[in-house]
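Subject: sequence -> structure tokens, single chain

Hey, anyone have a minute? Need the predicted structure for the following. Not urgent.
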Amino acid sequence: MEIFKRAISATLALLLLTKMCQGLPPETKALCNYTITIETMCTKGADTSNKISLRFGDMKFNDVLIHHVNSKHMRQVDPLEPAVYLDEAPKKPFQECTVDEFQVTGLCVEEPICYMYLKLNGDDDWRPGVADVRMSQASHLSSTDFYFRRYLPRNVWYGSDMCRGEVTPFGIKQERKVFSEKAILKSSP
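Reply:
Had a minute. Here:
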């Protein structure tokens, strides 16, 4: 009988601990490293010196928000062979006909990354091409390619959400994604 009581107590304690951990604020959840690759198109005037913000996440709404991704610039890579680095010294990101790589840290996703949004803050235009997110710790959670290939509107989130969709006679119906301020994580410099 005593063993039975201890087993029930241990089970209840585990359930209580699990419930408590589910309500933890985002700052106390695990952090992961991500490598983001963003191509800038070769169109005249496609480059920008504006600040770019980025957000991505998974179906469970694990949202990673990076303000001013420009400051996380790692290197430029060869567009034809991404494994070849053009220069190890960081250059100004988002120039015409370049592919830039950024290293960021954010909340860990639990499922494959299925949405990405970019936000252009400033006065000049920018025309990104293809972007992707690779997760260092779990490559199976990395994203597929996100295609932009047009000038971004200014001061609004613009992107692609491939998480959920219902096929209707009128096209793919997407659930509306509403971002809350509680998901914001200050990224490390």
